[in-house]
Specification:
GO terms for molecular function: protein tyrosine phosphatase activity. It catalyses: O-phospho-L-tyrosyl-[protein] + H2O = L-tyrosyl-[protein] + phosphate. Its EC number is 3.1.3.48. The chain is of the alpha/beta class. The protein has a domain of 166 residues: Oxidized Rhodanese, domain 1, CATH 3.40.250.10. The chain is built from nine helices and seven strands; from the N terminus they run H-H-H-E-H-E-H-E-E-H-E-H-E-H-E-H. Helix 6 crosses helix 7. The radius of gyration is 22 Å and the shape is globular.
Length: 249
Amino acid sequence: CRQLFRSPSMPSSVIRPILKRIDRPQDRDTPVKTKRRRSVAGSPGEEAAAAEPVGAGEGFGSFCHEEIENLLANDHRELIGDFSKAYLLQTVEGKHQDLKYISPEMMVAVLTGQFSSLIESCVIVDCRYPYEYEGGHIKGAVNLPMEQDVEEFLLKKPIVPFDASKRVIVIFHCEFSSERGPRMCRFVREKDRACNEYPHLHYPELYVLKGGYREFFPQYQTHCEPQDYRPMHHKDFKEDLRKFRLKSR
């Protein structure tokens, strides 16, 4: 079960239903079923089958929030970093299996306030070099290209929600979200772990924008400022690229 789940209060237009209840018929003790149970008793696959996660597909409405949390309680892959609750945003498959990716569409849902009742603060960390950021970036994103930058911004004085029932989420990206964004996401988690008693974290809910700015910009230019895209390998910024690559080593 690799999908991530949301609160039932969330608009159905944003998140596709991703859970279903499996209703199993009541078994009657017929000779055939009794024999079948005996034949598999103690087999290695029995325990694994019993622990099989609920599949995806049907409507979400039959589950209450507490039931969803209980379903996920035994699978830490589906819980945020401190294991306190399920991830809020639906994710997609990405290059790095240990990270949680969201689509550009999901990013826009966050930007347009469709999760405002559940998210108090969303920090968008643009890990590209300053000349890339200045050439066009997602509105509200903060440019933190170096590890010391992100450590200073996020961890020196951690962002704490005023409303304890709401979340602080961090979304990382670079040009393609292939190397710089994922690397910075892992760096924050590592530093966050180091300064907290396990499993507590300042930022338990981290995401990476799949496809980075390169994929986001063509689809949602109105959410960018300026409405332009400057690639890392721009011919006019070769010296800047060389300088920042040296600094990042």
